[in-house]
Specification:
Length: about 375
């Protein structure tokens, strides 16, 4: 073989060796995904979220470096990051009809960082309904005082509302809720409250669907006290007003009740409560021809128009004759004593009258039997 041919074969073998037996450079590998996984409740992209639901963020195989939730105006939602950095929860309720956006960062066990991002929107009610609760915080009330929740508009889903109401007492007390109208639900004990009971009420109404596109405007709470046990015994035939406190009679006042032979002027039978107290009350009754009559030390016990009040002008009838227009008349001195002793919510038990009060004037809770009361529950 010639030298030129030998060189050609040597060169060809080298090329084959390089192309057939050599190893290529390793291909570029994709970087590993971060191990940290961030999750949200409600989920990112969720719509029509109830603003009262729990709002949370969590991270698996990592911890949050920072996490924020802001509304469309850029205001941050208050929240609490767990000590281990693995979860965050809102500590205030969200608003209706808003968009909320997550931001922040988490670091995984592998040291890699992942963003906290996403958004959701809350439902926009057709309307919201305001509610109020009575008694108010730290009030001291009598042993017949009902708890009353009133709404600005009629409520359709009464059962849902009633389930959101809770009553806690310092001593066991049997009681129940009853709907007195589409706008009012009351709770009263089966019997009078035990004296000196502490009562706490919560109404979780915010975000609650009332039906018909309406939702609750706000939660309500109240904490109040039941005072001493004072009862007014008002037997119209005795011409006396008797006050019993903590089981003992503490007063017996000469009184004049409503005219016995005119049903329109009777002081009607029934158990009522002291609803309000006014040192001066201006009274009108066009049917019986008087207007702007000024009476003092007036304690209202019915929205039908009945009061316990001073009527010094009727002094000759006190303790002897029933001749009022339905109110309970006392002397000025006795009316002042009674007025000073009374609490809103004290029971007034009227008996011996020729007529009884129909259960239609606020407050009529105690004009219903316990069975009648329970039948008004929505659950």
């Amino acid at each position: 073989m010639s030298s030129k041919l030998r060189l050609l074969w040597t060169a060809l073998a080298a090329v084959l060796l390089i192309s057939g037996c050599g190893t290529s450079a390793p291909e570029d590998r994709a970087p590993a995904e971060p191990v940290a996984k961030v999750s949200f409740e409600p989920g990112a992209g969720a719509a029509e979220v109830n603003p009262a639901v729990p709002v949370k963020a969590g991270v698996e195989r990592g911890r949050f470096d920072s996490v924020q939730l802001t509304n469309g105006e850029g205001k941050q939602v208050e929240g609490q990051l767990a000590p281990d950095g693995k979860s965050w929860q809102a500590t205030t309720a969200l608003g209706y009809g808003k968009t909320y956006t997550w931001s922040g960062q988490a670091t995984g066990e592998d040291g890699k960082q992942v963003p906290v991002q996403g958004s959701f929107t809350t439902l926009r009610p057709q309307r919201t309904i305001r509610a109020t609760i009575n008694p108010t915080d730290e009030a001291e009330v009598g042993i017949a005082m009902p708890i009353s929740v009133k709404f600005d508009e009629p409520v359709q889903d009464k059962a849902a509302v009633q389930r959101a109401l809770n009553v806690q007492t310092s001593v066991p007390v049997e009681g129940a809720w009853a709907w007195l109208s589409d706008r009012q639900v009351d709770w009263r004990p089966k019997e009078y409250w035990p004296a000196n009971t502490r009562v706490s009420v919560s109404a979780k109404l915010y975000g609650l669907a009332y039906g018909g596109g309406a939702y609750g405007l706000a939660d309500l709470t109240t904490d109040f006290n039941i005072g001493r046990a004072q009862i007014v015994k008002a037997d119209v035939n005795t011409h006396r007003l008797v006050v019993v406190r903590d089981g003992e009679q503490v007063a017996s006042y000469a009184a004049s009740y409503g005219e016995e032979y005119d049903p329109g002027r009777n002081t009607p039978n029934g158990t009522f409560i002291i609803m309000e107290k006014n040192p001066v009350e201006i009274m009108d009754n066009p049917r019986y021809g008087y207007r702007d009559v000024r009476k003092t030390w007036a304690a209202r016990f019915s929205n039908h128009g009945e009061f316990i009040h001073e009527n010094q002008e009727n002094a000759a009838a006190l303790g002897k004759v029933n001749n009022s227009h339905g109110c309970i008349n006392l002397s000025a001195a006795d009316a002042k004593k009674y007025y000073d002793s009374a609490l809103i919510g004290d029971p007034v038990e009227v008996s011996g009258s020729a007529s009884s009060m129909p259960p239609q004037y606020d407050v009529y809770d105690w004009l219903l039997s316990w069975d009648q009361w329970q039948a008004k529950s929505a659950v």
